[in-house]
TrEMBL record:
Family: Belongs to the peptidase M24B family.
GO cellular component, one term: cytoplasm
Protein name: Xaa-Pro aminopeptidase
InterPro entries: Creatin/AminoP/Spt16_N (IPR029149), Creatinase/aminopeptidase-like (IPR036005), Creatinase_N (IPR000587), Pept_M24 (IPR000994), Pept_M24B (IPR033740), Peptidase_M24_C (IPR032416), X-Pro_aminopeptidase_P (IPR050422)
Domain called Peptidase M24 C-terminal: residue spans: 546-605
Pfam families: Creatinase_N, Creatinase_N_2, Peptidase_M24, Peptidase_M24_C
Organism in which the protein naturally occurs: Erythrobacter sanguineus
CDD domains for the chain: APP
Amino acid sequence: MLMQTHEARLAALREELKRRGVNGFIIPISDEHMSEYVGDYAQRLHWLTGFGGSAGFAAVTMNHAAIFVDGRYTVQVRDQVDGQLFDYKSVPADSLGAWLAEVCEGSTRIAYDPWLHTWAWVEALEDKVAPRGITLVPAESNPIDAVWADRPAPSPAAALVHNETDAGRSSADKRAAVADWLVKEGHDAVVIPALDSVAWLLNIRGADVPHTPVALSYVIAHRDGSAELFIAPEKVTPELTRHLGNAVTVRNRDAFEGALGELSGKNVVLDPDFAVVGIAQALRAGGAKFAFKQDPTILAKAIKNPTEQQGHRDAQARDGAAVSRFLRWLEIEASKGGVDELAAAARLQAFREEDAGLRDLSFDTISAAAGHAALPHYKVDEDSNIPIPPGSIYLVDSGGQYPGGTTDITRTVWVGTPDGAGEPTQEMRDRFTRVLKGHIQIDRAVFPQGTNGGQLDVLARQYLWEAGVDYAHGTGHGVGSFLGVHEGPQRIAKPGGGQAGTAQELLAGMILSNEPGYYKAGAFGIRIENLVLTEERQIEGMEGRYLGFETLTFVPIDRKLIDKALLTADEIAWVDAYHARVREVLASRLEGEDLAWMQRETAPL
């Protein structure tokens, strides 16, 4: 019998916990690979609570339940999760440890799935709750899976070969580099559970996670350059077997935990951000020694080789043409008042799909009208969908997956009125221009080797701070090469505050987003996002090595929202030069009215 209500699901989970002799359970949005986006089979939090965001977790005891989300989802969680069943908690102000200490009485056993949490996470929580008599218990199997009768199976899609013409480097070469690192560091093997790291190392891709072209699998890479790939047999094609060659042993994904026990006496590396407790437990039980160090593929993957860099440029040009065509369509149709958020997102996807090179979107499009644009991570659905009002700001954040690269672009535009009388307010133009000025500062930044993203972040915020306003998200994240749209270890964000990656040195070859913003709750939101490539700079008389950014994204920036009086001469020159480059990149990819529109929108300020 299928349970249709969240109340029934919560009751069934409590019965299962009671049967197992534990007093509670913790439910994250996660899979065994600590992926940012997870397949339907791992959407346990959504099944239990109804919450559809990409970050958050819940905790359930016999008498209490709470759902924890950050400021991005304060509104969404109240729309989707029954407040009669779950208390709403906001992180980081509210902590799981404090909540458990408050609701648990006496000696309490709280279960967690060791395949969905990292070692550091468990240790940190244990430190907080153990003094209160609360014991964390690793579950032998996930109790939600025991009561989720119609849980989807993991994707059966075949793994695909990522050609060296797109990868720019052979898997054998990458594995040799990992082997050299293991020898240098004094280790025998590294366990690689991160799906994009597996994909990068072996030059394979897949279709198992929405919008991220990866295959559910693990790798154990050895110091002799060989590797073991653990993947479901139905995913393995003759082409994949030929591609992997003799140095990569293909084993059933179900054999992975047992294989960890075969590393007895070996020195093994685990990445603290991706290796879950279950992996560490299996290694320890088998007699292996392990050390926590960053997976050696992480940094190598972030530094794009020349082939990947050129592939990104091609992907951006394809994508820029599709987005430009969409913006012209939007200008015409939305002013009539007949376009809603879902229809706009669908039309943008259709423009992208006209390019045969498109493989997927790179994330669910953020199609945000009016007050919804003030929610940086808004996700439109049938319930939240609204018409785009003529005489308003519209924000669209979207991207595509192409064999050459992954795109991510945000444009904020003014939707006019049928009579052309509607104009942006002075406040809108002021905020848009201050965001643009910060965007320009990041784009034009020149900095010495050794600079990290946390040191650059203030460049994007300075003009907003002058006006007494700010934005609550990072300024830039790493982007993969036909992989994850969010890729570490680099990012541009305020230092500290849990912003992983802000201390990572920026290196030539890294791709980042440049996306400052401003959000006025309930009214409008602004974000301008391009992707940039970190590259070496030559400066006459320079002492040491210096870096800067090459702009990769070329789509017109809405001049109707720019207050030219707020720009310096240099900034005006930047806008004009950027738009000249847009014309250069897109002219051969557009025709007719689309071409004429692009040329008009990129005229000098």
